[in-house]
Amino acid sequence: MLSKTGKKRDILYVTAFDKNGVLIKANDAVKTEDYFCPECNDKLILKKSGKTGKGSKRPHFAHYSQSPNCTPEGVLHKSFKLLLLEKIRKHITEKSPINIEWECIYCHEKHTGNLIQYAVETQDEYKMEKCRADIALLNQDSKPFAVIEIVVTHKPDEEVIEFYKQNKIILIQIELDSEDDLDKIEAKINIPTSIDYCFSLKCPNIDNYAYQRRAVAFNKKCGNFHIMRTCIAETYHYFGLHTSDDFKDEEIEFAKSNGVTFEGKKVICPHCRAISSRYRNMYRGRRSRRF
Questions:
Q1: Looking at the domain covering 73-205, what would its CATH class be?
Q2: What pLDDT is attached to residue 289?
Q3: Burial (CB count within 10 angstroms: exposed 0-12, middle 13-18, buried 19+), residue 28
Q4: What is the CA radius of gyration of the chain?
Q5: Does residue 99 carry a pLDDT above 90?
Q6: Can you name the residues that pair with 172 across neighbouring β-strands?
Q7: Residue 232 burial (CB < 10 Å; 0-12/13-18/19+)?
Q8: HEC string of the chain?
Q9: Domain assignments of the chain as residue spans, ordered by start
Q10: What does the pLDDT look like over 28-62, one tens digit per residue?
Q11: pTM recorded for the entire structure
């Protein structure tokens, strides 16, 4: 992260475990307590002068003697992961959604959903054949359908990315810039850096994604208030329900067999030929035939 002067700001040790194993931020720590490194478990010293202004450092922790295998980047990675795990587990327990939005890295279409729509539990450092995921989201069969990789210095290797693709596991990446991101857990998960997942028929990578899709035919009024038959495609994906009027050929045939009139691939009113486009989610609560 760059400071106001344009120089890269060093990442500091700003989190530590207290004697009860609770993760504490330096701003909330007191000098009379003992603190331990989240990465190497060595004892840390709190540096909190209370001074502000030019030349002063933010409150942080430091090792009595630095271990070569322990870095502030590693502590930032682990601390963010623990805080994010805590948040996700709380939402799963309370059955409250975690809204996410992302742009497909292949077709660039924008999507929204609920991260934990089908998540029953999460696991930290989930071991798989080719890798160990930072956070794995497990379904009701205790199988991972998505993983979250937290990136501070190194992105996942190409071999790991390919492994996720082959096993149809959604890869979510969250890149961190500085320890300030520890105060932005919600924003970072609501809009991750990237999600390798799409449910658009326009996506060139659509065959790599697993989902259930069906077409639904129902009655509605067109813009000129004529009763007409129309159709919608529902995609049940890992992050929720998506509706679309982009149809597969077999869905169009299904719709036609259920009284829907098409002009090309667009639904039209058979009475006035108006194109039906404003009908998404209008069929809820109605009886309908399903493909």
A1: alpha beta
A2: 40
A3: exposed
A4: 25
A5: yes
A6: 148, 195
A7: buried
A8: CECCCCCECCCCECEEECCCCCEEEHHHCCCCCCEECCCCCCEEEEECCCCCCCCCCCCEEEECCCCCCCCHHHHHHHHHHHHHHHHHHHHHHHCCCCEEEEECCCCCCEEEEECCCCCCEEEEEEECCCCEEEEEEECCCCCEEEEEEEECCCCCCHHHHHHHHHCCCEEEEEECCCHHHHHCHHHHHHCCCEECCCCCCCCCCHHHCCCEEEEEEEEEECCCCCEEEEEEEEEEECCEEEEECCCCHHHHHHHHHCCCCEECCEEECCCCCCECCCCCCCCCCCCCEEC
A9: 15-70, 73-205, 211-290
A10: 999 999 999 999 999 999 998 766 555 567 899 99
A11: 0.82
Question: What are residue 232's DSSP bridge partners?
Answer: 216
277: confidence class by pLDDT, cuts 50, 70, 90 = low
Letter for the amino acid at 82?
Answer: L
